[in-house]
Amino acid sequence: ETGVTQSPTHLIKTRGQQVTLRCSSQSGHNTVSWYQQALGQGPQFIFQYYREEENGRGNFPPRFSGLQFPNYSSELNVNALELDDSALYLCASSPGSGTGIYEQYFGPGTRLTVT
Amino acid sequence: QKEVEQNSGPLSVPEGAIASLNCTYSDRGSQSFFWYRQYSGKSPELIMSIYSNGDKEDGRFTAQLNKASQYVSLLIRDSQPSDSATYLCAVKSSYDKVIFGPGTSLSVIP
Protein backbone atom coordinates (compact mmCIF):
# COMPACT_ATOMS: atom_id res chain seq x y z
CA GLU A 1 0.00 0.00 0.00
CA THR A 2 1.36 3.39 -1.03
CA GLY A 3 -0.99 5.58 0.99
CA VAL A 4 -2.33 7.13 -2.21
CA THR A 5 -6.06 6.69 -2.61
CA GLN A 6 -8.33 7.30 -5.59
CA SER A 7 -12.07 7.41 -6.05
CA PRO A 8 -14.14 6.07 -7.55
CA THR A 9 -12.68 2.69 -8.46
CA HIS A 10 -14.82 2.24 -11.55
CA LEU A 11 -17.00 4.63 -13.49
CA ILE A 12 -19.21 4.36 -16.57
CA LYS A 13 -20.14 7.54 -18.42
CA THR A 14 -21.82 8.45 -21.67
CA ARG A 15 -20.08 10.31 -24.48
CA GLY A 16 -20.42 14.07 -24.00
CA GLN A 17 -20.74 13.90 -20.22
CA GLN A 18 -18.31 15.31 -17.68
CA VAL A 19 -16.42 13.38 -15.01
CA THR A 20 -14.43 14.23 -11.86
CA LEU A 21 -11.85 11.84 -10.46
CA ARG A 22 -10.30 12.30 -7.01
CA CYS A 23 -6.96 11.52 -5.45
CA SER A 24 -5.53 11.80 -1.95
CA SER A 25 -1.76 11.95 -1.90
CA GLN A 26 0.61 10.23 0.48
CA SER A 27 1.29 12.13 3.66
CA GLY A 28 4.14 14.61 3.21
CA HIS A 29 3.94 14.61 -0.58
CA ASN A 30 3.25 17.98 -2.20
CA THR A 31 3.34 16.97 -5.85
CA VAL A 32 0.60 15.07 -7.66
CA SER A 33 0.70 13.81 -11.24
CA TRP A 34 -2.11 12.34 -13.30
CA TYR A 35 -1.69 9.72 -15.99
CA GLN A 36 -3.95 8.05 -18.53
CA GLN A 37 -3.19 4.42 -19.29
CA ALA A 38 -4.92 2.74 -22.20
CA LEU A 39 -4.96 -1.04 -22.35
CA GLY A 40 -1.56 -2.44 -23.30
CA GLN A 41 0.21 0.94 -23.17
CA GLY A 42 2.38 2.78 -20.72
CA PRO A 43 0.95 5.61 -18.61
CA GLN A 44 0.63 8.88 -20.53
CA PHE A 45 1.41 12.05 -18.58
CA ILE A 46 -1.59 14.39 -18.35
CA PHE A 47 -0.38 17.06 -15.92
CA GLN A 48 1.32 17.69 -12.61
CA TYR A 49 0.45 19.92 -9.66
CA TYR A 50 2.87 21.31 -7.13
CA ARG A 51 1.59 23.37 -4.21
CA GLU A 52 -1.77 23.95 -5.93
CA GLU A 53 -0.26 25.17 -9.22
CA GLU A 54 -0.06 23.23 -12.48
CA ASN A 55 3.66 22.98 -13.28
CA GLY A 56 3.73 20.58 -16.21
CA ARG A 57 1.33 19.31 -18.84
CA GLY A 58 1.40 16.57 -21.43
CA ASN A 59 -0.27 16.48 -24.85
CA PHE A 60 -3.84 16.49 -23.64
CA PRO A 61 -6.55 18.95 -24.77
CA PRO A 62 -7.90 21.68 -22.46
CA ARG A 63 -11.00 19.61 -21.67
CA PHE A 64 -8.68 17.76 -19.28
CA SER A 65 -8.27 20.02 -16.28
CA GLY A 66 -7.31 19.66 -12.68
CA LEU A 67 -7.05 21.12 -9.23
CA GLN A 68 -4.87 20.61 -6.21
CA PHE A 69 -6.14 21.59 -2.78
CA PRO A 70 -4.24 22.97 0.25
CA ASN A 71 -4.09 19.45 1.75
CA TYR A 72 -2.44 18.34 -1.55
CA SER A 73 -5.36 16.17 -2.61
CA SER A 74 -6.27 16.58 -6.26
CA GLU A 75 -9.02 16.31 -8.83
CA LEU A 76 -8.96 15.48 -12.53
CA ASN A 77 -11.88 16.81 -14.54
CA VAL A 78 -12.68 15.71 -18.06
CA ASN A 79 -15.34 17.52 -20.05
CA ALA A 80 -17.13 16.41 -23.22
CA LEU A 81 -16.12 12.79 -22.80
CA GLU A 82 -15.11 10.87 -25.91
CA LEU A 83 -14.99 7.12 -26.45
CA ASP A 84 -11.16 7.28 -26.56
CA ASP A 85 -11.13 8.62 -23.01
CA SER A 86 -11.90 5.10 -21.80
CA ALA A 87 -8.81 4.13 -19.83
CA LEU A 88 -7.28 3.63 -16.40
CA TYR A 89 -6.58 6.99 -14.78
CA LEU A 90 -3.70 6.94 -12.37
CA CYS A 91 -2.74 9.45 -9.73
CA ALA A 92 0.80 9.49 -8.38
CA SER A 93 2.24 11.51 -5.54
CA SER A 94 5.84 12.35 -4.77
CA PRO A 95 7.85 14.49 -2.35
CA GLY A 96 8.57 16.23 -5.64
CA SER A 97 9.72 19.65 -6.67
CA GLY A 98 11.97 21.38 -4.19
CA THR A 99 13.16 18.20 -2.52
CA GLY A 100 15.14 16.64 -5.34
CA ILE A 101 13.23 13.41 -4.73
CA TYR A 102 11.07 12.36 -7.63
CA GLU A 103 10.02 8.81 -6.84
CA GLN A 104 6.30 8.57 -7.53
CA TYR A 105 3.85 6.34 -5.70
CA PHE A 106 0.66 5.39 -7.45
CA GLY A 107 -2.87 5.00 -6.27
CA PRO A 108 -4.97 2.03 -7.39
CA GLY A 109 -6.45 3.94 -10.31
CA THR A 110 -9.92 4.72 -11.60
CA ARG A 111 -11.18 2.65 -14.50
CA LEU A 112 -13.29 4.94 -16.72
CA THR A 113 -15.51 3.50 -19.43
CA VAL A 114 -17.18 5.86 -21.91
CA THR A 115 -20.08 4.42 -23.90
CA GLN B 1 11.33 9.85 -31.84
CA LYS B 2 9.48 8.75 -28.72
CA GLU B 3 10.77 10.16 -25.45
CA VAL B 4 11.19 6.79 -23.71
CA GLU B 5 11.46 3.52 -25.60
CA GLN B 6 11.48 -0.07 -24.42
CA ASN B 7 11.49 -3.46 -26.08
CA SER B 8 7.83 -4.36 -26.19
CA GLY B 9 8.43 -8.05 -25.63
CA PRO B 10 7.04 -10.32 -24.53
CA LEU B 11 10.25 -11.51 -22.94
CA SER B 12 10.23 -15.09 -21.72
CA VAL B 13 12.89 -16.50 -19.39
CA PRO B 14 13.07 -19.78 -17.47
CA GLU B 15 12.77 -19.74 -13.70
CA GLY B 16 16.14 -19.01 -12.09
CA ALA B 17 17.56 -17.20 -15.13
CA ILE B 18 18.52 -13.53 -15.45
CA ALA B 19 15.97 -11.27 -17.11
CA SER B 20 17.37 -8.20 -18.84
CA LEU B 21 15.11 -5.24 -19.60
CA ASN B 22 16.27 -2.26 -21.62
CA CYS B 23 15.20 1.35 -22.00
CA THR B 24 16.46 4.33 -24.02
CA TYR B 25 15.45 7.96 -23.68
CA SER B 26 15.75 11.03 -25.86
CA ASP B 27 16.11 13.97 -23.43
CA ARG B 28 19.84 14.38 -22.65
CA GLY B 29 18.93 16.65 -19.74
CA SER B 30 17.17 13.82 -17.87
CA GLN B 31 18.61 13.18 -14.42
CA SER B 32 16.29 10.72 -12.67
CA PHE B 33 15.31 7.26 -13.82
CA PHE B 34 12.86 4.74 -12.43
CA TRP B 35 11.71 1.18 -12.93
CA TYR B 36 8.16 0.18 -12.09
CA ARG B 37 6.47 -3.20 -12.10
CA GLN B 38 2.82 -3.50 -13.07
CA TYR B 39 0.79 -6.63 -12.60
CA SER B 40 -2.24 -7.08 -14.82
CA GLY B 41 -5.16 -5.01 -13.56
CA LYS B 42 -3.04 -3.23 -10.94
CA SER B 43 -1.28 0.13 -10.75
CA PRO B 44 2.49 0.54 -11.20
CA GLU B 45 4.71 -0.24 -8.22
CA LEU B 46 8.12 1.42 -7.82
CA ILE B 47 10.99 -1.09 -7.88
CA MET B 48 14.08 1.12 -8.13
CA SER B 49 15.31 4.59 -8.84
CA ILE B 50 18.74 5.50 -10.17
CA TYR B 51 20.29 8.94 -10.48
CA SER B 52 23.99 8.36 -11.20
CA ASN B 53 25.89 6.50 -13.91
CA GLY B 54 26.74 2.93 -13.02
CA ASP B 55 24.97 0.11 -11.24
CA LYS B 56 22.59 0.13 -8.31
CA GLU B 57 21.64 -3.13 -6.65
CA ASP B 58 18.64 -3.94 -4.47
CA GLY B 59 18.17 -7.60 -3.68
CA ARG B 60 17.67 -9.51 -6.92
CA PHE B 61 17.32 -6.29 -8.92
CA THR B 62 20.15 -4.28 -10.49
CA ALA B 63 19.56 -1.03 -12.36
CA GLN B 64 22.24 0.21 -14.75
CA LEU B 65 22.49 3.76 -16.09
CA ASN B 66 24.63 5.14 -18.89
CA LYS B 67 23.78 8.80 -19.48
CA ALA B 68 26.23 9.18 -22.37
CA SER B 69 24.40 6.44 -24.25
CA GLN B 70 21.00 7.52 -22.87
CA TYR B 71 20.40 3.97 -21.75
CA VAL B 72 18.91 2.41 -18.63
CA SER B 73 18.52 -1.27 -17.92
CA LEU B 74 17.10 -3.53 -15.23
CA LEU B 75 18.47 -6.96 -14.47
CA ILE B 76 16.45 -9.45 -12.45
CA ARG B 77 18.53 -12.29 -11.09
CA ASP B 78 17.09 -15.69 -10.12
CA SER B 79 13.83 -14.84 -11.87
CA GLN B 80 10.70 -16.22 -10.22
CA PRO B 81 7.22 -16.82 -11.69
CA SER B 82 6.01 -14.03 -9.38
CA ASP B 83 8.23 -11.63 -11.38
CA SER B 84 5.93 -12.12 -14.39
CA ALA B 85 4.54 -8.64 -15.03
CA THR B 86 4.99 -5.59 -17.24
CA TYR B 87 8.06 -3.51 -16.42
CA LEU B 88 7.85 0.20 -17.04
CA CYS B 89 10.84 2.48 -17.46
CA ALA B 90 10.22 6.09 -16.39
CA VAL B 91 12.39 9.16 -16.88
CA LYS B 92 12.14 12.56 -15.26
CA SER B 93 12.69 14.96 -18.11
CA SER B 94 14.47 18.28 -17.88
CA TYR B 95 10.97 19.82 -17.91
CA ASP B 96 10.16 18.18 -14.56
CA LYS B 97 7.73 15.67 -16.04
CA VAL B 98 8.06 11.93 -15.43
CA ILE B 99 7.55 10.17 -18.74
CA PHE B 100 6.90 6.44 -19.03
CA GLY B 101 7.88 4.01 -21.72
CA PRO B 102 5.38 1.57 -23.21
CA GLY B 103 6.54 -1.27 -20.95
CA THR B 104 8.07 -4.69 -21.49
CA SER B 105 6.03 -7.77 -20.68
CA LEU B 106 8.06 -10.41 -18.82
CA SER B 107 7.00 -14.00 -18.45
CA VAL B 108 9.01 -16.32 -16.16
CA ILE B 109 8.42 -19.93 -17.09
CA PRO B 110 8.52 -22.48 -14.22
List its traits.
heterodimer, A: 115 residues, mainly beta, seven-stranded mixed β-sheet, four-stranded antiparallel β-sheet, 11 strands, 0% helix, globular, B: 110 residues, six-stranded mixed β-sheet, five-stranded antiparallel β-sheet
Short description:
The complex is a heterodimer of chains A (115) and B (110). Chain A is 0% helix and 50% strand.
Write the topology of this structure.
The complex is a heterodimer of chains A (115) and B (110).
Chain A: E1 5-7, E2 10-13, E3 19-24, E4 31-37, E5 44-50, E6 53-57, E7 64-68, E8 74-78, E9 87-94, E10 105-106, E11 110-114
Chain B: E1 4-6, E2 11-14, E3 19-25, E4 32-38, E5 45-50, E6 54-58, E7 61-66, E8 71-76, E9 85-92, E10 98-100, E11 104-109
Parallel strand pairs in B: 2-11
Antiparallel strand pairs in B: 1-3, 3-8, 4-5, 4-9, 6-7, 7-8, 9-10, 9-11
DSSP, total strands of chain B: 11
Distance between the termini of chain A: 32 Å
Structural class of the helices, strands and pairings of chain B?
mainly beta
Principal-axis shape of chain B equals: globular
* Helix-strand topology string of chain A: EEEEEEEEEEE
Number of helices of chain A: 0
| CA-CA gap between termini of chain B | 37 Å
By secondary-structure content and strand pairing, the structural class of chain A works out as mainly beta
Shape of chain A: globular
The Cα radius of gyration of chain B reads 13 Å
Low-confidence stretches of chain B: none
Give the fraction of residues assigned to helices of chain A.
under 10%
Largest sheet of chain B: 6 strands, mixed
Q: Biggest interface and which pair forms it?
A: A-B, 23 and 22 residues
Radius of gyration of chain A: 13 Å
- Proportion of beta-strand residues of chain A: over 45%
